[in-house]
Amino acid sequence: MDAILRIILWVDKMSVELKNVTKKYGKIYAIRNVNLKINKGEFFVLLGPSGSGKTTILRSIAGLEKIDEGRIFIDNEDVTPLPPGKRNVAMVFQNFALYPNKTVYENLSLPIENLNKSEREERITEVAKRLGISDLLNRYPSELSGGQQQRVALARALVKRAKIFLMDEPLSNLDAPQRISARKLIKDIQIEERITTIYVTHDQTEAMAIADRIGIIFNGSLIQVGTPEEIYENPANIDVAMFFGNPPMSIIDGKVVDEKGKIGVRAEDVSIGEGKLKGVVREVEFWGDRYLVYISINGQEIRAFSKIKYKIGEEVNFSFSKYKLLGE
Question: How many CA atoms lie within 13 Å of 274's alpha carbon, on the beta-carbon side?
């Protein structure tokens, strides 16, 4: 049987639901009244700045944190009182958490020590081939590159045949080229096997590239849930608008377009060289196939994409093809 098909067959997709989940450290709320439903086979990304509560949610689902209030369900079963080993989840940590004194093979064996030797060998061989690490099985973690360690950590999750993957910033210790290839590998595996995956990151570009849906978290509260496109086009509030996207929305007074309150404008929705609005170029950044131009208008700043490299101090006309009303 084909190795990929064998892995697909054992996956029984599971949903995850959090109901009014709260976790405190002393008097400080790490997460507060979180309500979230993650669908079977979904790639769901928890996105927010450092310290927002993303990892606390992940660790609570895994059973590594005991919540103070609320309930956690996996496939409609209340797992709140269950220890980590009874929840059938696999977690990939930021630092990979490989045992330095054990070979790759031995690291992969740890989650499946209950199997007999032939079953362990079959499962490890299968997953190692899938992830391209067959030639690394006799090496130690110190002999591996960051990208190779990341593959081993992912393989360890796969051999366990868990029904839910929990990934806590798994790419943050990799350099830029490794992050791109590792991100594609993770997404490819998730698509092929449709394992319910909950992935934590602070990187908006990463989130938009891999997520089916995203949950935006600020200060322990879940602010908005939607597809990348939904959040990009319709941020729930000013905080989300200023956080989500690369670059994020420019936020200015609506009075420049005869609107009340604040408006948000994406850089691609600003046209320089036409329109009645006037501003002064304050900064220009080279972005490969285009420039990101910072325009000052009445003490406020607008970002715009342009194929032309404008000069700093140059006065320009510009207009908006669309904008988002964000309230006061």
Answer: 6
Residue 159 CB-half CA count within 13 A: 30
Residue 235 to residue 212: CA distance in whole angstroms: 17
In what helix (H) or strand (E) does residue 224 lie, and over which residues does it extend? Answer: strand 221-226
Report which of 43, 85, 328, 19 is spatially closest to residue 198, judged by C-alpha positions: 43
Q: Give the global pTM.
A: 0.87
- What pLDDT digit, counting tens, does each position of 301-320 carry? 999 999 999 999 999 999 99
Q: Which residues pair with 196 in a beta bridge?
A: 164
Cα-Cα end-to-end distance for the chain: 60
| Tokens standing for residue 110 | 């740890």
Token look-up 């080229």 returns: 177
**Residue 238 CA from chain centroid, whole number:** 20
Phi, psi of 324 (to 5 degrees): -115, 125
Angle, in degrees to the nearest 10, between helices 176-193 and 3-10: 70
**What average pLDDT does range 273-297 have in this prediction?**
96
Q: CA gyration radius for the chain?
A: 23
Strands 262-265 and 270-286: unpaired
Which among 102, 195, 132 has a CA at the least distance from the CA of 113? 102
pLDDT band, residue 12 (cuts 50/70/90):
low
Contacts of 226 (CB under 8 A, 6+ apart): 213, 214, 234
b/e map of 60-81 (b: 16 or more CB within 10 Å)? bbbbbbebeebebbbbeeebbe
pLDDT band (50, 70, 90) for residue 10: very low
